[in-house]
Amino acid sequence: MRVELLTIGAELLLGYTVDTNAAFMARSLSEIGVVVVRHDTVGDDPELIARAMLDGLDRTGAVITSGGLGPTADDRTRDGLAAAFGRELLTDPEALAQVERRFRLFGREMPRINVVQALVPRGARVLENRFGSAPALWLEDERGRWVITLPGVPSEMRGLLTETVIPILRSRESAPVVVTSRTLRTTGIGESALAELLGADGGSSVAGLPLAYLPGWEGVDLRVTAAEMPAAEAERHLDEAARRLRDRAGKYIYGEGSADLAAVVIDLCRERSLTIATAESCTGGLLGARITAVPGSSDVYPGGVVAYSNPVKESLLGVPTELLASRGGGAVSEEVARAMAAGVRERLGANIGIGITGIAGPGGGSPEKPVGTVWMAVQMGDEVRTFGRVYVGDRGEVRARSAQSALETLRQLLIVSS
Amino acid sequence: MRVELLTIGAELLLGYTVDTNAAFMARSLSEIGVVVVRHDTVGDDPELIARAMLDGLDRTGAVITSGGLGPTADDRTRDGLAAAFGRELLTDPEALAQVERRFRLFGREMPRINVVQALVPRGARVLENRFGSAPALWLEDERGRWVITLPGVPSEMRGLLTETVIPILRSRESAPVVVTSRTLRTTGIGESALAELLGADGGSSVAGLPLAYLPGWEGVDLRVTAAEMPAAEAERHLDEAARRLRDRAGKYIYGEGSADLAAVVIDLCRERSLTIATAESCTGGLLGARITAVPGSSDVYPGGVVAYSNPVKESLLGVPTELLASRGGGAVSEEVARAMAAGVRERLGANIGIGITGIAGPGGGSPEKPVGTVWMAVQMGDEVRTFGRVYVGDRGEVRARSAQSALETLRQLLIVSS
To answer: Residue B26 and residue B19: Cα distance in Å, rounded?
Structure first.
């Protein structure tokens, strides 16, 4: 099956918004073997929307749109759809009931303005939106050409695409699932060091497949791609490639695909009934936020302390005053990280304590301790691991990399001690 | 001037890459008054590339592309450009010298494969690329319609656009019209309610300028745009529009442009020498992370407690056991949020305490307390404000919206008490 994507909204053409919806739609559709042959973006103009829909229908017969289904005057996708198919726009009782239900769910009366969200071109199918107020629409002509309109709010688009549109598309075609690439996620090693580890040829291929290095603040992702071959053969090649990468760089690989290091660490702890408590200074709650972003993290995470000021490090974590004084090493030091980890572990009665202290910048650096200097410590039982590093990047990056490194320090400790 | 953008590459249509180039180009062009009327994406196929270029030329007469100028077999933009204009592709000595120079700069011999980067359609102007090996091209026909091809590597595209293309476009327009816009950031009110508040016409314009509603988890941004008028006049209109929006919806407006609510609240506290301590359950550190993301937040933020489990709510915050028991209202209740705020304020010796407790999902909901139920409390001196809400969205959204609401609850308290 071949489809085109159409994303709608002035904010996209003004560059205020990066079009992450298009990438999500493309990836989700590609995964089930649907080929996205083109993507267009137009503004909030019903004529231009209709014209773009018709062009897409002429080329491929199938268009999925995102955006322009809200209740305000600049939401014009309904009008564009009606114009493209030459159909009248009518208030649909089912759609109206959905919008009203949505507001009632949150104990509110539907504002009058939202009535327009129940306008539907004659003959269109209304797809219920469990994630927001705008119903999605599916309109098909007598020649079997169709347009699906999805909302532009990312969570609504994602929910509707995954739960409703993809099952419908699957049922319409026995499309073979084609897996063309595999991603192994590494952290704690740089791109060049990884490339040297992976092969004399600069590590540009593995098992005959091209290898890409995708660096980010979480680490470097390794992506192997198998193109232009049947699905079964691609799987075999990708398995072999993944095996070779694990042989060479296994220590640094924490997962595949879109694996999250926090989720990996939580699983390792849950298997062994271990609990984690966090004591954060420069990350200010970011590590706790990463851990609690994972559903079910309450099994292993009772909580933590954000000890941003020195008095809080003393009163809530029991870090000795002498250590915090500059002659004792100062707040950003290996010793303070250790004392934070030990203090939070003891006070929360957890098996594992993690401490992080550092200088996220832009201010606060010195020649001996430049901006980006971070110390972290992990204590499990009597065992303590510490890790110090000067991170490159702005405040946000230093903090994000610190939280990731703390999780990786714990992962390494758990793996070795297993 | 009106232009269209064309981004080229299979990775975009597979969704592996989010198209940040399109957003950067759109924003940079908008800033100098060039109107981007459309953006298309096609794969690495010279026929489709040529077709898309011709469609764009027919509609607006000006197309800027990105991608497909590399040395490998899947880089086909040069062929597409030649086909669209019916010109021959020739090796251009100037372009070849540029590519060779680029490799020499890094002490390397030019690989033979890179010779294709010097292929240029007859009559095209070669734009030097100081940021990489692929020269950009500018081809104009006898009717004054033109295509500029830029590389797809973001740093190369950005460098060429900023240093070369934008100065050329500026010089071509005699009386540059400026498109300027202003964004007012609101939170704590939905899109529909805001539109009703802003006018009987659905709030689609203000002071004669079009008004756009941009909803996100932080709230709804209001953007007013002044197009096709001289800069001074645009400023006057925007000032008037902003004044009217503030008259009607001022209570909900926390800043302009890309203002961050956490930074706004920190400034308000700093002015009055007030300190904030946080007690977080469902947000798990996210509120602390938002506050400490702001440079200089240590002036007002000593820290907080992440009390994810009930025992930590008791031991570190002093929340009474009876309240946490289900007969007392349970951990997710107005009373517990109050007790958390009071406890963290007292134990950290801060002026203001914030407590948040809720059910972020996907599990843990019940008919009486569905997923998304969140209670928050802010205590300043003897004054306490509480706020309860059932948020829509997935786990990430519920948490992000909760942190934002807690900050807004505090902002409202600070504004009223000032």
So the answer is: 11
Amino acid occupying residue A67: G
Distance CA(B99)–CA(B119), nearest Å, equals 11
The distance from CA B123 to its chain's CA centroid, rounded to whole angstroms, is 39
Amino acid type, A155: S
Domains of chain A: 2-172 (3.40.980.10), 181-256 (3.30.70.2860), 261-416 (3.90.950.20)
∠ CA A294-A299-A300, nearest 5°, is 85
Task: Report residue B192 CA to chain centroid gap.
Answer: 22
Interface test with A, best of B3, B37, B192 (most A CBs within 10 A): B192
The gap from C-alpha B313 to its chain's centroid, in whole angstroms, comes to: 36
Instruction: From residue A380, give the alpha-carbon distance in Å to each of A285, A288, A386.
Output: 21, 18, 12
Q: What is the arithmetic mean of pLDDT over A270-282?
A: 97
DSSP type of residue A4: E
Structure-block tokens of residue A287: 């590590």
Residue A175: the pLDDT is 46
Q: pLDDT by residue (tens digit) across A339-379?
A: 999 999 999 999 999 999 999 989 989 988 999 999 999 99
Q: Is the pLDDT of residue B394 over 60?
A: yes
Answer yes or no: do A278 and B285 touch at CB < 8 A. Answer: yes
Decide if B285 and A295 are in contact by the 8 Å CB cutoff.
Answer: no
- List CB contacts of A171: < 8 A, sequence separation 6 or more: none
Token code pair at residue B164: 């070369």
Torsion-angle region of residue A90: left (phi > 0), alpha (psi -120 to 50) or beta?
beta
Q: In this complex, how many residue pairs, one in chain A and one in chain B, have their CB atoms less than 8 Å apart?
A: 295
Contacts of B42 in chain A (CB under 8 A): 37-38
pLDDT top residue among B402 and A229: B402
